[in-house]
Structures are given as C-alpha cells and as structure tokens.
Amino acid sequence: MSSATMITSVSDHYVNKIVRLVDKPNQQGLVVENGFFDEEHRHLEVNQEKYKNLTFVYVGSLYISQNIEALLEAVLKATTLMKDAPQVDFIFLGTPLSKARKEGLIKSFSSHKVNLIFYNRLPKTEALEIQSKCHYAV
Predict the structure, then answer these.
(1) Helices (H), 22-94
(2) Least CB-packed of 26, 91, 120, 126 within 10 Å?
(3) Contact present, 116 and 106 (Cβ < 8 Å)
(4) Contact, 1 vs 15, CB < 8 A?
(5) Which pTM does this prediction carry?
C-alpha cells in the first residue's frame, strides 16, 4: 500500500485510518460507497410482520468452497432440539448455484422440515423486502 497513488475504502473513517497506517499523510483517499444507502431502507417497517415459518436468509454469492451444508445442519440440529420443531425456510437470495448443487441441497434437507428457497438476483427493493420479513440473516 505504501506505493499506492490512492487509497479507497467504504467510509471516511477507514480511508483516514489506512492513510495513517501507511504513514502517508499527504496520500489521497477516496470513499467508494458499498451500496448501502439509508434512504433505501426508510420505507421498511422496523417491526414488519415476519414470515410464518422460522426463516433464515443468505444474501449474495455462494462459492463451491463455502460449506453451507454445515450451516444448514446446525440450523436443523438447533430446531430439532426445540420442543415443537418448527418448519424452517432457508432463503438463498441472489445466490447463483449450479443445478446439481441446488438439487443436492434440496435432497439432503427437504425431508427434515427444512424448505430451501432459491432466488436469482432481484431488484434491491425486492431483496430488502424479503430480508425484512425473515427472522434471521446469515
């Protein structure tokens, strides 16, 4: 970083912190916002009604090296320990997966009261609406 001509980050705080870290007080810094804009969330109700089933949501890419199965197994184990094991929906939002991996996940977990729901990339407002109705984001 010491040879960089410009430092970029998602906030002024981190730009300044990195500039100090590399000891370049005259270094230029630029904030590149990460896509979170408060005004896009204002229409969502804080206490919005949640989905009926216990719902988890995973947003974004999921790479072959990421062991989502371990997370699904943990959710399954935790919910089966509950007195009245609830129906669980696990939403993958904007998560491109191969057909084989989707089918494998569905086959592995569908018999355990875990419903896997896959959405392709959605407009941001739709994605935020779905997320706001889920019980947990992962």
Answers:
(1) 68-80
(2) 26
(3) yes
(4) no
(5) 0.65
Helices 99-109 and 68-80 pack at an angle, to 10 degrees, of: 20
Q: How far is residue 92's CA from residue 63's CA, in Å, rounded to a whole number?
A: 13
Structure-block tokens of residue 17:
């912190």
CA distance 137 to 23: 38
Neighbours of 65 (CB within 10 A): 5
Adjacent-strand bridge partners of 91? 57, 117
Residue 96 has which token pair? 């491109």
Beta bridge partners of 8: 30
DSSP characters for 28-78?
-EEE---S--GGGTTTS-TTPPPPSSEEEEEES---TTS-HHHHHHHHHHH
- Cα(101)–Cα(74) distance, rounded to whole angstroms? 19
Q: Render pLDDT for 12-54 as a digit per residue (tens, 0 to 9).
A: 787 788 878 877 666 667 777 666 566 665 656 655 688 899 8
